[in-house]
Automatic annotation (TrEMBL), chains A, B:
<protein>
    <submittedName>
        <fullName>YDG domain-containing protein</fullName>
    </submittedName>
</protein>
<feature type="domain" description="YDG">
    <location>
        <begin position="11"/>
        <end position="155"/>
    </location>
</feature>
Length: 163, 163
DNA sequence: TAGACGTAGA
DNA sequence: TCTACGTCTA
């Protein structure tokens, strides 16, 4: 049980390979992949600007993120999208959403982790998918008339294939 | 990131020594010390009866558990004791509380883990304190007139000292 | 102090 | 489905 406290950064993490799997979000933090225990979008400040460092696309939360060959459409955060108790609101271009927009504008790499539900529903299976770039983003109006941000990311070519 | 799924049992855990420290509750689960990610009392069914396997006494949650030389007074679970939103209710002799009561009656060992707040407030420091036996339990009436269970446990002699 | 794509078991 | 001594950042 060694004490872990990794500095988060943009880009690949030394020692972590595409396809590496983890069981808990605390493990993602321990190895330096994703710092936030409950947030999908992790980001850091460089000077006065936020950039995304990593996103985890966990299935089964009502976000309906779509993984396709080399692409990913990812739903922004905020607006109580997955809350059962709180009222849905418009998502805003702040926090993680703003960080992803900045990553697009400045062509910063984003680590992508996919979280899959396990058949035994004990923990998840978090798989490191590699580095992506944000291609564009837009807003959609969801069921209850609220604004939701969508980010399209493409996988940077030349990385090991996902089996 | 090897997949972990340990069978929980009563008594000491092979390979775990008094004083071993951990950072997250998911680690406690991984090594077989404490299965529940957010509950203080872990227990298992033997035949038709529940017995406690381990308790974590985390500081800073308004439970006011007391560690003394060889003794521990532990607050039972339930009743929304630490909830800020929900109304406080009477604790009942069920779930983990019932398991601890059975551990007293049948003299079953209980693993004790102490969770301390860290100065940097990142993670906790969970320390394995060794095996205890429940000496007795009682109820108290707390501030808002609600029933709270208290369990007194003593540390089984002959174990390595806690430095 | 509150918010956020957490976890497991009853 | 819900509860439960979670865990981090803003």
């Amino acid at each position: 049980g060694k004490r872990v406290n990794v500095e988060m950064r943009i880009g690949s993490v030394p020692g972590i390979k595409v396809g590496d799997e983890f069981q808990y979000k605390t493990q993602l933090r321990a190895v330096g992949l994703h710092s936030k225990p409950m947030c999908g979008i992790d980001y850091m400040k460089v000077g006065d600007m936020k950039f995304a460092t990593s996103i985890t696309a966990s299935e089964g939360y009502g976000y309906n993120d779509k993984f396709d060959s080399g692409f990913l459409v990812y739903t922004g955060e905020g607006g109580n999208v997955i809350s059962k108790e709180k009222k849905t609101e418009n998502q805003k271009l702040n926090k993680g959403n703003l960080a992803l927009a900045n990553s697009l504008r400045y062509k910063k790499e984003v680590r992508v982790i996919r979280g899959e539900e396990r058949w035994d529903r004990k923990g998840k299976r978090y798989t490191y998918f590699g580095l992506y770039l944000v291609e564009n983003y837009w807003t959609e109006i969801k069921d209850r008339g609220k604004v939701v941000y969508k980010f399209k990311l493409f996988r940077i070519p030349g990385q090991p294939p996902l089996t």
